[in-house]
Amino acid sequence: MREDAVKFFAPLMFCALLMLPAVSAQAEEAHDAKEPAASIEYIDLNPLSVPVINDNGIVQHVSLSVSLECAAGKRDAVNIFKPRLMDAYLRELYGALGSGRAMMKGNVVNVEELKARLTTVTERVVGPELVTGVLLQSVNQYSMRAR
């Protein structure tokens, strides 16, 4: 009986051993696909802090942290634009928040609208070939109402 089991399982084991390199290669490819691409760099910008001003004065205060996504090796080229980019961000945020265009019902900041506006400003100042994404790391909103 034991000899029959060996005769039966030996070819199966041999086939399994032949398939091992293929399975190992597939597992390695899947692992590589899960790792973040080393060809992307992130540049953290200084936090932005903007008062929301309307006819009643300062009604809110919005703070946000922004990171820029760029191709590896482009960090220095993007860093050259930081002062102009921060200036353009502040001008856009003052206008969009103060006018209410970047606010939702209840005077809540519309994060998607802010991201879209900052992406447009980034493409205008830096160009789409250098920065591939604008990431909002945090958005904080504080009401200035008397407590």
Secondary structure blueprint with pairings:
Blueprint: H1 2-34, E1 40-44, E2 48-54, E3 57-71, H2 75-79, H3 82-99, E4 103-104, E5 108-109, H4 111-125, E6 131-143
Antiparallel strand pairs: 1-3, 2-3, 3-6, 4-5
Helix pairs in contact: 3-4
User: What top-tier CATH class of the largest domain fits best?
Assistant: Alpha Beta
Structural class: alpha+beta
Radius of gyration over C-alpha positions, nearest whole angstrom: 27 Å
Through-space gap between termini: 87 Å
Would you identify the CATH architecture of the largest domain? 2-Layer Sandwich
What's the mean pLDDT score? 82
For the secondary structure, the number of strands is 6
Q: Biggest β-sheet, characterized?
A: 4 strands, antiparallel
| Poorly predicted spans | none
Helical stretch tally? 4
Helix content: 40-55%
User: What is the chain-wise order of helices and strands?
Assistant: HEEEHHEEHE
How is the quaternary structure best described? single chain
Q: Please indicate the percent range of residues in DSSP E strands (runs of 2 or more).
A: 25-35%
CATH fold-level assignment of the largest domain = GTP Cyclohydrolase I, domain 2
Total domain modules? 2
> In one word, what is the shape?
elongated
Q: Briefly, what is this?
A:
The protein contains four helices and six strands; from the N terminus they run H-E-E-E-H-H-E-E-H-E. The protein is α+β, with helices and mostly antiparallel strands.
